[in-house]
Design brief:
The chain is of the alpha/beta class and 752 residues long. The chain has four domains: 152 residues, Immunoglobulins (Immunoglobulin-like, Sandwich); 274 residues, Glycoside hydrolase 38, N terminal domain (7-stranded beta/alpha barrel), CATH 3.20.110.10; 74 residues; 101 residues, Immunoglobulin-like, CATH 2.60.40.10. 31% of the residues lie in helices and 24% in strands. The chain is built from 19 helices and 31 strands. Strands 21, 23, 25, 27, 30 and 31 form a six-stranded mixed sheet that branches. The protein has a five-stranded antiparallel sheet with strand order 4-3-6-7-18. Helix 6 packs across helix 7 and helix 11 packs antiparallel against helix 12.
């Protein structure tokens, strides 16, 4: 009975702890209360097992105890599951659900690890041999792989971390490659993109970015720097793997790097204060490296700012979509000094609807996901419709490969990372498709537009491609050659635009805002004039502005309508600033007019580097009449003084609004309030003065008449001048002595 009890105890312990230190399936229970431990894988070699490759697998990395408790008995091993036997099994392996206990080699002991401590590891295991001592690979295929970390925390042994990935096997080391079957042609898009960050620019003005993240990304150690470096290192010009790659580049990203290299500013407060950017040198070096990598390579231009073409067309902006795509191709070719494919379009998510096909049709070759057509094929070339230029064709991208390029290695039970295994899933999927031999004749890999891969992922994918090409499983095919393959002699296939794609596209109201902004810019263009040797041309000024409006329609904001609206508001604010740079200058003091026909001298400023034709418009104000003002040509970044013939009909101080319009009537900068002080007598004043003078004359005449009438009195009835009538008393006797020679008394003086 004691032996039975002991056996039961051993079985219970085994069920609770799983296989920790002994060979066998690694099924230790997950302990949710275990403190976090970071398992990081830095490298894995080889990424693809080939006949000419090494006979053992080597994985390096480190383990860090980020918890509060000591971890004892740390041990690590790499184990594998059976080869996947179909696409569902491969997808299950990518999700981390595939079994991984077919081969369980021994653990490598790493010892105890105190809180905050870290220990490096290098684990090597033979690729072939006994299941208990090697990975025991039986032959070509794609195998689920687990990097398994076990340990004991608080006396409880368990799996405390793990990273799942895939191991593609083309052929076993030391054996000749399998000669059966022809190599599968393969081509892969290599996206070099980033979210749009530059505010719509004007030549000659300091570029402004909404943040300075590109300074970090383009510097050594950054994502964009790593993409170009991995390309130059792992796929040098002339190599087969370079032939299989086609660079998918956003023209706006390259234009932003060129602008940054000359000095730029970053907004500190949205729409307000700015500060100098710190990535001018890094941007210049990155751009030079990209030019070197693109020389002689296949280059595909994305729409500027990676705009959502379907959303633009569905909102009635097909012409804008076509024009900006062509402008982007020309700008990218000029910046990189290399040819750009001019007949290929890669829409967002690889799906297309009928109106967009109609808008871009006419000999165009589209790069579409196989999920976006109804043909049932997963790869190859299909015919969309017949027409001029050979009609429209689509090169199909395998959805399985796109998923594999998207997903990182599955990380279990830890907060660590698997940077050294990035891109391994795509290598496994490529080996799986190459082994199938039923791919429709070719493979096209299209990673997601917002590809987050850095140097590690890119280098891993390039290395896997090179190994499979060298081993004869894949054959490098340039994208133009892949697209030129003859499509089957069947009816044109139909398009399938998924409902989820329609729900994720940029909202129609945002596209309407973009269209209004473009119309505003075109109104400015209509007032511009190209003058030889003076300033820039209208195309140099306004084409970048139009492309800049697509920032709000970028596919980076798909499924995030709030962000798209914020970006549209940023662009709208910038366009208003540009319009306001053509304005009437506010004078420092009021205009003083001393005569009724004195002219007004108005100063017009042009902040754009192109000659602008404008009309000065003064608001109608009582007391001021203005003669028609001819159109004025304002030089680039200059000023002109306009002499306005005006007639003032009143005195005093009053305001007049002066604004600018294009010859077509579009408004430019905001109206400026002019203050006018007049000392001229107006018509009303003259009339009042005249009436007052007339009244004064009338009153004076009236006073004289009244006095005349009052002094004349009644007529003399006696006729002798005495005024005495009958019965009147006689005159007084005269005073001969006293009054002789004296003047007559006042009463006797004659009236005046």
């Amino acid at each position: 009975m004691s032996r039975v009890a002991a056996l039961v105890a051993i079985l219970l312990a085994a069920l609770l702890t799983g296989s920790v230190a002994a060979p066998g399936p690694a099924l230790a229970q997950e302990q949710p209360d275990v403190d976090p431990v970071r398992l990081e894988v830095d490298t894995m070699s080889p990424r693809v097992v080939t006949s000419a490759g090494p006979p053992e697998l080597v994985v390096t990395g480190s383990v860090t105890n980020t918890g509060r408790d000591r971890v004892d008995d740390l041990s690590l091993r790499v184990q594998r599951g059976p080869a996947v036997d179909g696409e569902p099994a491969l997808r299950s392996a990518f999700a981390g659900d595939a079994p991984v206990d077919d081969a369980t080699p021994p653990f490598a002991q790493l010892g105890p690890l105190a809180p905050g401590g870290s220990v490096p590891f290098r684990y090597s295991v033979p690729l072939t041999g006994d299941r208990a001592a090697s990975l025991a690979l039986p032959g070509p295929g794609t195998y689920p792989l687990l990097v398994n970390l076990n340990g004991t925390v608080n006396g409880t042994p368990s799996r405390i971390a793990g990273i799942r990935t895939a191991l593609p096997v083309s052929s076993l080391p030391g054996t000749p490659p399998d000669p059966s079957g022809a190599a599968t042609p393969v081509s892969m898009l290599y996206p070099i993109t980033d979210a749009p960050r530059r505010i719509p620019p004007v030549p000659g003005q300091v570029p402004v970015l909404t943040d300075d993240d590109l300074a970090t990304s383009m510097a050594p150690g950054g994502r964009l720097h790593g993409l170009v470096d991995a390309l130059a290192t792992g796929a040098p010009a002339g190599s087969p793997v370079r032939t299989a790659l086609c660079l998918a580049i956003d023209p706006e990203l390259v234009a932003t790097a060129a602008a940054m290299s000359g000095g730029y500013e970053v907004t500190v407060v949205p729409g307000g204060e700015t500060a100098p950017g710190r990535g001018a040198a890094a941007a210049g070096e990155w751009l030079e490296a990209l030019r070197g990598a693109a020389a002689g390579s296949c280059v595909l231009a994305l729409p500027p700012s990676d705009a959502d073409l379907v959303a633009l067309v569905r909102a009635g902006q097909a012409e804008l979509a076509r024009a900006t795509l062509e402008q982007g191709r020309a700008a990218l070719s000029e910046q990189l000094n290399t040819a750009v494919l001019d007949d290929m379009v890669w829409p967002a998510d690889g799906v297309l609807d009928e109106p967009t096909l109609e808008a871009f049709g006419g000999g165009t070759r589209f790069l579409l996901s196989a999920d976006g057509v109804s043909s049932g094929q997963t790869s190859g070339v299909v015919r969309l419709r017949d027409g001029p230029g050979g009609g429209d064709r689509a090169v199909l991208a395998d959805p399985l490969l796109a998923q594999a390029a998207t997903g990182p290695a599955v990380v279990e039970l830890q907060d660590g990372g698997a940077g050294g295994l990035s891109g391994q899933e795509l290598a496994g999927a490529l080996a799986f498709r190459a082994a199938q031999g039923e791919t429709g004749g070719s493979l096209l890999v299209t990673p997601p537009r917002g590809w987050a891969a850095g140097r590690e992922a890119a280098a891993g994918i390039i290395s896997a491609l090179a190994a499979l090409i060298q081993d004869g499983r894949l054959a490098a095919a340039g994208l133009p050659g892949l697209a030129a393959q003859a499509d089957p002699a069947t009816e044109a296939t139909g398009l399938f635009y998924p409902v989820q794609a329609g729900g994720a596209e940029i909202p129609g109201q945002v596209i309407d805002t973009v269209a209004d902004q473009v119309r505003s810019i075109e109104g400015l263009r209509g007032a511009a004039e190209a003058r030889t040797g003076v300033g820039a041309s209208p195309a140099e000024v306004f084409d970048p502005l139009v492309r800049g409006t697509l920032r709000a329609a970028s596919s980076w904001w798909r499924a995030d309508p709030a962000r798209a609206e914020r970006e549209a508001a940023i662009v709208a604010g910038r366009i208003e600033q540009i319009r306001a740079s053509v304005r009437v200058v506010q004078p420092p003091s009021p205009y003083s007019l001393g005569t009724s026909d004195a002219p007004l001298l108005i100063t017009v400023a042009n902040g754009l580097p192109v000659t602008m034709n404008v009309r000065v418009v003064l608001s109608s104000t009582t007391g001021l009449r203005v003669a028609p003002i001819p159109v004025q040509a304002v030089p680039p970044l200059g000023r002109v003084q306009v002499r306005v013939s005006a007639q003032v009909t009143r005195s005093g101080q009053f305001g007049v609004d002066a604004g600018l319009r294009t010859p077509d009537g579009a408004e430019l900068g905001p109206d400026t309030r002019l203050r006018v002080r007049s000392t001229v007598y107006g018509t009303v004043t003259v009339w009042l003065t005249g009436i007052a003078g007339a009244l004064l004359v009338v009153l004076v005449v009236r006073r004289i008449v009244r006095r005349v009438r009052a002094g004349s009195g009644p007529a003399d009835p006696s006729g002798d001048g005495t005024g005495a009538g009958p019965g009147a008393p006689g005159p007084e006797p005269s005073r001969a002595s006293d009054d002789a020679g004296a003047p007559p008394a006042p009463d006797s003086m004659p009236p005046r």
